[in-house]
Amino acid sequence: MRAPAVVAALALALPAGADEPAARDAFETELRAAILANGDVIAKAMAGPSQMQRHIQNDLSLLDRLAPDLLAGHPIAVFTTETCESCATAVKELTAITERYGITFIQHDLSHPQPARWAAALGLTNAPFYVLPEMVLNGHMPPVVLEKHLSPNTMKTNPQPTHK
After folding, report:
1. Strands 129-132 and 135-138
2. Does the N-terminal or the C-terminal CB of the chain have fewer CB atoms within 10 Å?
């Protein structure tokens, strides 16, 4: 995380009157020195997107492997616990959305062994969270966020008949 701090500090370091040639030359000299002194940090920052792409691909592969059992034919799953303060609200809101769009969801209780294993594989411990075929939404989501991902115009799966 040093790279963003270095870049931000350098951006803010532009001296007043930097449009003057002497001030600009001094700034460029300082910038060059900072880049040379922090080359490793800058190289890591530049390599970030490919590393991030690898993490994203790994997560998508994991979801692809888990989805058939975890989703069981539903476009979304919600993971809850009895001790979760916002879980009942999450289920109520998700029920209203799925009924409106004529789709279904599956609810998993984290106190049961299999849902707990899925959550551990996904690196999630706190309920509620939602799993869709290509993403995980961690935490209680406002209905507008869920609607964005579940509306017939944005869903990548075919809507299911309404039955639970």
Report:
1. antiparallel
2. N
Q: What is the pLDDT of residues 94-122, one digit of tens each?
A: 999 999 999 999 999 999 999 999 999 99
Give residues with Cβ within 8 angstroms of 40, minimum separation 6.
none
| 132 phi and psi angles, rounded to 5 deg | -115, 170
Contacts of 70 (CB under 8 A, 6+ apart): 77, 108, 118, 131
Q: With b meaning 16 or more CB within 10 Å and e meaning fewer, what string describes 106-142? A: bbbebeeeebbebbeebebeebbbbbbbeebbbebbe
Is this prediction's pTM over 0.90?
no
**What average pLDDT is seen over the chain?**
82
Q: What's the rounded mean pLDDT across residues 64-93?
A: 95
The residue type of 14 is: L
Contact 93, 143 (CB under 8 A): yes
Amino acid at site 61:
S
The three-state DSSP-derived secondary structure of 34-79 is HHHHCHHHHHHHHHHHHHHHHHHHHHHHHHHHHHHHHHCCCCCEEE
